[in-house]
Amino acid sequence: MRGALGGPRLLLRRLREVMAEPVNAQARLDRIVIHIAANMVAEVCSVYVARSDGKLELYATEGLNREAVHLTTMTTGEGLVGLIAEKAEPLALADAQAHPAFSYRPETGEEIYQSFLGVPILRGGNTLGVLVVQNRARRTYSEEEVEALQTTAMLLAEMIASGELQSLAQPGQSFSLQKPMALRGSPLSEGVGLGHVVLHEPRIVVKQLVAEDPAAELRRLEQSIQAMREQIDQLVARGDRYGMGEHRDVLETVRMFANDRGWLRRLREALESGLTAEAAVERVQNDARAKLQRQTDPYLRERLHDLDDLANRLLRQLTGQGTAHGGVLPANAILVARNMGPAALLEYDRANLRGLVLEDGGPTSHVAIIARALGVPAIGEVPNVTDLVETGDAIIVDGGSGEVQLRPPADVEAAYGEKARLRARRQEQYHKLRDVPTVTRDGVEIGLHMNAGLLIDCQHASEVGAKSIGLFRTELQFMVAPSFPRLSEQYNLYRKVIDAAEGRMVTFRTLDIGSDKVLPYMAKMEEENPALGWRAIRIGLDRPGLLRMQLRAILRAGAGREMRVMFPMVANTTEFLQARAVAERELEFLRRHGYELPTDLKLGVMVEVPSLLWQLDEICAAADFLSVGSNDLTQYLFAADRDNKRVSARYDTLAPANLRALRSIVEAGDRYGKPVNLCGEMGGRPLEAIALAVIGYRGLSMTPSAIGPVKAALRAVDLGATRDFLLPLIENPGDRLSLRQELQAFVEPRCVPL
Ligand code: PEP
Ligand code: MG
Question: What is the distance between the alpha carbons of residues 216 and 318, in angstroms, rounded to a whole number?
């Protein structure tokens, strides 16, 4: 390397010796800058550390005025040092003072230095500080020198992250790494959780940065790349079968990166600067992260995930460290992950789990459904969160508002602690209502039922005082299983669910798969519009073997009891009649083979496809009961994807059009003497529940935690008076898009808290 004495390897070795010396942090840092300056034949070497207040503080210098140490600070974006921190990119200048960002600090005496080379001190793509060398004479720094300084900066990153420099911080100051942050995402599961970060995929710790034998490191790197490529090829060759969260598109992209010449070249360059193979991978990945994280283009940001995936695979190959997820958790654990499948979440020990934060994961993702079932506060779509946290960081999850408080200051922590206590107190009040019936002030009784999908849900039925399990989503068992559950496995689950319901009725819904509910072991259909595609009862009727097996398992599990089964996504009465015929044939089969039968079987229909609104007479005549799936019905009525944030707020469940549609269903049920329940999310919100009671619904099925608040609201309302107010508005809404505000304004003063 031109200009450097002994090259980067010698420097790294020297620095490693300095790291091992028994001296205090300041002395160590002072020696480090002396070695760097000497090795790079520079007159100046300085280290700036990023503080939690956003400033960069001079922590050590060789060549500048020593008095300036711990006194000189720059704001991010100010001066050359601030610019490097902001952009997270190296900057090499032959004439620093000619640069528009140059800012003169008299206390440092730096005006006599012409050339400047600075690199960010990066960790996980975050800037922890800036490392600078300067020369009096004008000179151009070579690429190798830039490379060498970046490598050296990795050592400093470790020093900062290890907390060794903590003792040097000014009173009241801390490092950017420890700065409190308020993040925001999408609420997935209600509740407030306070605890400490546990990474679902712990960062792989590179312990050995400096290579002993560079040639051997190159061999190790090449062997690992080869092994990783073979592993990816095998996974891709498995065709449409997914491994643990391994998606084919992602694998294809990762494979492309793994063969990318630029990436391989950067790895070799990093190796040449004296790093071990694993440290080289980390270096290259740090740079890529720093660049991609600052991109606003979602496509490019998505590529960062692919690159991360690649780097992690390679690091696992090189270090032998695995992904240690699942199992035991420390007390008050808050899990943080990029993404997580429902099965992975279930593997953790629930007793210590206080919350979940994901970078991906929308409100209707399966992991969100599981988090709700477990009663774990959860937030999804929190950008970059895995990079911003360190294992053990204090963290607060507010699953109601979607707020994450990372490393919260004491006052924030106290406020959330209070919120959690208040919530617990409110829960206690709801608990007191558990055994009282849900009767409005004017004496109308509304049945409150609960939705479930896992065996663990069923225990909530008695805790919250649900009348029955109004919707059992059978697909969850299929979604978390490694392969298609056999008849006996299905039977066992249904039997246990019925037992766990302790005498309450369970309404089983047959498999509602397809669209977003994919089974990992089933060939994935490429469909333009999966929500309008081959799903639910459509699959059941086209593959009657599956439907028959499930119905047989359900009917056998219900031996000697009253049973209710319903079919999802029915668009035509004939589909219901066909499904009914399959169920009756199964009943006949069981009878012929001498099985004990259910004492009574009621077969119902989910009303969630708008075409049924114009077949209400026929469907009411054919079905024993109706259950409105308002989540789907509303998305189809308004042609707005329920999971697409851009459009889901465009319509309101309390829109007059929606209320009219819902009213027509319950009125048809009344005409035919067929019970009508509603089991979409809407029924679990107090104001919506009041509106539904007004238009005639007498049965609502909801997530268990919603029963308390809905019961409290319904018991406080005078239904007759609210009906007199609301019905004319539904009939003559004028140009109102939603009746929410008016209903709220009417109900609130008359009703205890909503
Ligand atoms: C619905 O669509 O409202 C419903 C209850 O079913 P799911 O949310 O499972 O589609
Ligand atoms: Mg539905």
Answer: 13
Phi/psi class of residue 726: alpha, beta or left (left: φ > 0; alpha: ψ in -120 to 50)?
Answer: alpha
Q: Which ligand is nearest to the CA of 449?
A: 1
Distance 471 CA to ligand 1 centre (A): 9
Helices (H), strands (E): how many in the chain? 28, 22
What integer pLDDT is reported at residue 674 of this predicted model? 98
Nearest CA to ligand 1 atom 4: 629
Give the model's pLDDT for residue 162. Answer: 81
Q: Can 366 be counted among the known catalytic residues?
A: yes
Determine whether 390 is exposed, middle or buried from the number of CB atoms within 10 Å of its CB (0-12, 13-18, 19+).
Answer: middle
CA 481 to ligand 1 centroid distance, Å:
21
Q: Pick the catalytic residue: 35, 366, 449, 460?
A: 366
Is 200 a catalytic site residue?
no
pLDDT at 247: 53
State residue 3's pLDDT score.
46
Index of the ligand 1 atom closest to the CA of residue 627:
5
Contact 130, 164 (CB under 8 A): no
CA 687 to chain centre: 28
Greater model confidence, 553 or 233 = 553
328, two tokens: 């035991």
Atom of ligand 1 nearest to the CA of 475: 9
Q: Measuring CA to CA, how many Å separate 656 from each of 140, 224, 659, 661, 669?
A: 71, 62, 5, 9, 20
Residue of 620, 107, 185, 91 whose CA lies nearest to 377: 185
DSSP state of 737: S
CB atoms inside a 10 Å sphere around CB 671: 11
The upper half-sphere exposure of residue 735, i.e. CA atoms within 13 Å in the direction of its Cβ, equals 0
- The closest alpha carbon to 340, from 310, 370, 295, belongs to 370
- The enclosing H or E element of 158 equals helix 143-161
Q: Which residues line ligand 1 (CB under 6 A)?
A: 471, 473, 512, 608, 629-632, 679-680
How far apart, in whole angstroms, are the C-alpha atoms of residue 530 and residue 517? Answer: 10
Strands, sheet with 353-358, edge to edge from the N-terminal-most edge strand: 181-184, 403-406, 394-398, 192-199, 333-337, 353-358, 378-380, 186-189
* Pocket residue to mutate for ligand 1, from 469, 474, 515, 606, most atoms within 8 A of Cβ: 606
Residue 29 φ then ψ, to 5°: -65, -40
* Closest atom of ligand 1 relative to the 630 alpha carbon: 3
Quote the Cα angle for 531-537-541, to 5°.
125
Q: What is the pTM of this model?
A: 0.72
Whether residue 239 has pLDDT greater than 60: no
The ligand placed nearest to the CA atom of residue 470 is 1
Span from the CA of 606 to the centroid of ligand 2 (angstroms): 8
Q: Whose CA is nearest to atom 6 of ligand 1?
A: 629
pLDDT digits 0-9 by tens, 500-533 = 999 999 999 999 988 767 777 777 777 888 889 9
Looking at residue 286, its pLDDT comes to 84
Measured CA angle at 676 (ends 674, 677), to 5 deg: 150
Residue nearest to atom 8 of ligand 1 (CA): 631
pLDDT band, very low/low/confident/very high, at 238 (cuts 50, 70, 90):
low
Q: pLDDT at position 56, please?
A: 93
Cα dihedral sign for 183, 189, 194, 197? negative
- pLDDT tens for each residue of 69-115: 999 898 877 889 999 999 889 999 999 888 988 887 777 776 678 99
Distance 569 CA to ligand 1 centre (A): 9
Taking the centre of ligand 2 as the mean of its atom positions, its distance from the CA of residue 631, in whole angstroms, is 6
Residue 681 CA: nearest ligand 1 atom is 3
Query: In whole angstroms, what is the distance from residue 105 CA to residue 126 CA?
Result: 26
Amino acid 199 reads L
